[in-house]
Amino acid sequence: MPIHRVPTISGIRTDTTRVRRITVGTPINLAVQNLSSGLKTFDGIGDKPGIDELKLGEIGINTQDGKLYIKRAYDGVETIVEIGAGGGGDLNATTTFNAYIYTSDGTLQTIEGPDDATNVLQYDPDPNTPSRIQVYLNGVLLHQGIDYVANDGTSIVLTHIVGEEQVVQVAAYNSTGVSLNNDLIIDDHFSLTLGTNEETRFYHNGVDTIIKHLGFNDGQFKIQYLNDERFVMDSGGVQLLGQYRLNGVELATKTDFEQLNARLDALDSDIQSIKNLELIQNLLSE
Fold it and tell me: pTM higher than 0.90, yes or no?
């Protein structure tokens, strides 16, 4: 590296002072080159890079959608994550706020089913706290728990019958759920908890995977297919209901065992009758 004389500075001798020329940072041409090598572009609307199309540390850019993507690797699982997606692309929460109008015929007390515009009443119920609805009678807001009860999600029971031609309006909040288009990863000792009272937990404790039902209100833990085949656990023990197969072989059900026991009891009775008949014959022959 060449040595250059420092320019004259007032009050300081420079005839004996020497410094080296120093380059600070990376030359701009190299910086741009390195940055470009870590970018990949996708120009189709809705195009999202696949797992094999991005390396760790690379950034994928959809030039039409204006979206950025990176690859995420955790615990051996690789996923593509949209940067800044928030509640968008990979996590979608759908909610609605609906209004229903019912005109009384003089007998209206339970509000349910289609309203005047054939819209069917539906709201998010909560048996422990007020459901997320507002009910108005001729424009006057009613008090939930005093003027009406609403806890099943499909009906509202008023305290008093509504007079003829009076109008009940219901404003109801509905959440139709959350959809995930990517892996949901929960670290050890953190749980996916279900139920208003946090009754069921699904978690990994660092060694084992556990589904734990806490049994509040004497509730049962069920693994169920449709309505007939189910595995049930409660304070009384474990039940298996329905048809069972083990390695492709159908196993006997409780009904099968009961029928078999009944047939064995009948067979025992027949055997005893034969023995009695033989005993009588022996006595007569003597």
Answer: no
